[in-house]
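Ticket #4471: structure export looks truncated?
Reporter: QA, pipeline team
Priority: medium

Steps to reproduce: submit the single chain below to the structure queue and open the exported record.
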Amino acid sequence: MLKIRNLILVLGALTFPPDFSAAQVSVGIGLPHASIGINLPAYPRLVRVPGYPVYYAPQLEANFFFYDGMYWVYQHDDWYASAWYNGPWGRVERVDMPAFILQVPLRYYRHPPAYFHGWRPDAPPRWGDRWGHDWERHRSDWDRRDRRVAPLPAPLPTYQRQYSGDRYPRQVERQDAIQRQEYRYRPRDPVVQQHYQQSGQGRGR
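Actual output as written to the record:
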């Protein structure tokens, strides 16, 4: 069940070219999906995490990733996923998170929470310590995948660059129609496939 939060951060005016480091995260609720306030002025620059099929956004003050055709954001101890860079976002249960996202080292979290303090920057967050033994029992193998045989990263959906500001499609139906025309990639990770379908994307394929 979605957690209702009331924090809203008003962004200052942004000049062109956009200063992505000023883009912040605010939290609200947008049914049937969560709106976590990723209010970006334009498509963000995404950089590959070395050795992982994952990208991160180094210029954002947010824990913003791209993996297997979807965007992933870690905020307030919850994970969210979307097929478009500004959402709408769906909350993902901790036990259902893709392993490659959980394995990303701390140094690629651009807005790390306080409880990351003291953990090794070149290692993944200590999710078992944070989320407890029950989670660790269900996901005991999350950090044991052989990264030497990691899949190639999904192609970036750069077609979304042309949809910014008022041109950004807010309705999932519109997003899906555009994506069917512009982006041929389909998720390969079984966990991501499930989230992709639940998000409302991929219908009619």
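Status: closed, not a bug. The export was complete when the record was re-opened. Leaving a note from the reviewer for reference: Residues 127-138 form the longest helix (12 residues).
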